[in-house]
Amino acid sequence: MDQEILKAQRLRLSRFAMAAATYGMVILTTLLVQQLGLGRMSAGQWAVFLGVALAGNLAFLNIFLKGWNLRFKDPSLTREQIIFSALWELWALYHLPQARPLVLIFYVPAFCFGILRLNRSNYLKVVGTVMGLYAGLLVLEYAQGRPGFNPGYEIFLFFLFGILFSWLAFFGGFVSDLRRRLRLQNLEVLKANEELCKQMEERKKAEEEKDRLLGELREALGNVKTLKGLIPICAWCKKIRTDTGYWQELEGYIRDHSDAELSHGICPECASEFSAGLGFQERESSKE
Q: Where are the domains of the chain?
């Protein structure tokens, strides 16, 4: 598993630990109810009550530890855990009818675990499942003719908690939807921030490239030697007077004050004069 998955799994295990603690709270409250004389379960009924809670939580813990939850659409298994807890609490609802309102209140923490995880549709499905199980329990008690069963009172409780659970479903769905939209907005902000950082990095590289080219240009310009201004030159020998008053040959002056290199040759006019002069010397030599 990569680090992101491991981090998410640790968070799911933390939420599961909170859910397991809620089971302990329900068990302690059920013991208190029995001590106050609001109802009583036999030793066998207590064994089933505790055994189912222990077996269910161990099963969920094993699923999380082995990573099997990652095969589900919702790896947190929130809906499955809520439905299991609702089934488990039906046992107390059935065997502690006098404390039924108190037991029903403990459905609220179970539903709260769906906030931030379940959307409105899934929340309503969970509510429908739980209320369907509760309705089945009432029908069973009515069919059994259970002593002390008050249909009017039970129907009142059914609709009261049905409204409460439905409100939790709509509220939880609203919070989940709000969280989803905020997450999408955060992703868009992160994406825009990454794009901005990328553009800034590209601009920084462009600035560095520009500075490099400007540096090379300055260096090249620094190496360029130019001749400018009024240069005194002899009209006869073509020597140039330097700043120190020394008369320097033209070739040497150009070489010292520029990067030019002179290559000697002969122009056509000088070549003609040189040839003519050479012919005159040859005629003089022949006369002698």
A: 3-185, 240-287
